Amino acid sequence: MTLLAIVLGTLCAGIGSVWLAAALSFGVLARYTQHMLSLAAGALLATAFMHLLPEAFESGAEPHDLFPVLLVGLVFFFLLDKAELWHHGHEHGESGHQHGAQHHEDDHHHQAAGHAGHAHGDHQHGPVTGSWAVLAGDSVHCFGDGVLIASAFIADLRLGAIAALAVLAHEVPHHMGDLMVLRAGASNKRVALVKVSLAGAVTTLGGLLGFWLVAQLEDALPYFLVVASASFMYVALADLIPQLQKRLSAAQTAAQIAWLLAGVGLVTAVSALAHGGH
Question: Per the confidence metrics, is the pTM higher than 0.85?
């Protein structure tokens, strides 16, 4: 049952996020791109603080052991981000804030184990190299997502459903950037969607490995959950929320806050439904 849930959850998060990204990039939902950033930030923070961390601390592990793991995790994802910037030599800050979804392609690459390999193509490099870099890096990224989702499902089916939802929410703007880079490489919409969907499917491979790995290291499960929390917190606080910190009208600010709270509410609702079903 747990393995089936992991497969379904990783497929939903990995491929579902790509298809939703395509709808936002190419379809009638394009006007909601910025709102998705707020929604994803709320979902990630709610998942980390209301579900993953409480589950880890209720496991019986010593808080004095778990908090250092959380700190090391946050620093680790920060260093991965730095390593990525040094590797590519991007003009990271200036161009990214001008393009909501494209900005995500330039710096939304800190989510899980192996993110250092997220060598996505920037908009200043050749399109062919950039396209292959996007696919290779995205596959590594999605593999790490799958391991984290599997960790959550092994702890509790309800927690796994919430983690899968959070990954889906924050991967949408990320995949929007992927699709834009692939389109710049002369791929048509359908080819770009197929390529990114295949990369997203690697999430399930990560989930299968995570099922085996965490099962072998059952005592380490609380620490896996804390690392997942650190990942979600870093993505929300270092990537998504800074993009929302811009001068806006009162109505636009209210919309940002509403969508952020909607992300929190969505995670809470999924938790309640999953808990009832479980």
Answer: no
